[in-house]
Amino acid sequence: xxxxxxxxxxxxxxxxxxxxxxxxxxxxxxxxxxxxxxxxxxxxxxxxxxxxxxxxxxxxxxxxxxxxxxxxxxxxxxxxxxxxxxxxxxxxxxxxxxxxxxxxxxxxxxxxxxxxxxxxxxxxxxxxxxxxxxxxxxxxxxxxxxxxxxxxxxxxxxxxxxxxxxxxxxxxxxxxxxxxxxxxxxxxxxxxxxxxxxxxxxxxxxxx
Length: 208
Description:
CATH architecture of the largest domain: 3-Layer(aba) Sandwich
CATH superfamily of the largest domain: HAD superfamily/HAD-like
Low-confidence stretches: none
Number of helices: 10
Order of helices and strands: EEHHHHEHEHEHHEHEH
CATH class of the largest domain: Alpha Beta
Strand content: 5-15%
Largest sheet: 5 strands, parallel
């Protein structure tokens, strides 16, 4: 029997439906040593730096500032966004199939809530047809805010008149899951397509 209390499924994209990983470009032989790669990600093109662009900062401005700050790393810094499409590993087909089942079930609305730089998201929209299946989406680069800030989640809830008590949020980042739960949105910390399938069956969202 399906769960009648849930009517909305909210998906994160990167790491859940789409395989995106900078290490597809900055692989083990890109730098002279593992220590250089570690330094690059921990001190230069950091996760926090990338999230500034997700929240609307220009990738051109961000790149130029880092090049000025770290001129010896210019080539690698420019490759971060210059070779961004090479970081796209493609869709997680098993998760996309789960999404397809939910989209085809008229009891559920599906939405995307994603930290993604606006212009780069356009590339994903061209590449992946399933991104057009959603009933709506909220993209951080367009909104100038991002997960885990509460106002970003509230934009989706308000824009699409979603009752948080009747929604489930799926994200591979535990920080983002916890932020959603603080707003009263039941959440699933995504670990794998199989684990997601099991969680949705347990919650009576999908048939077993």
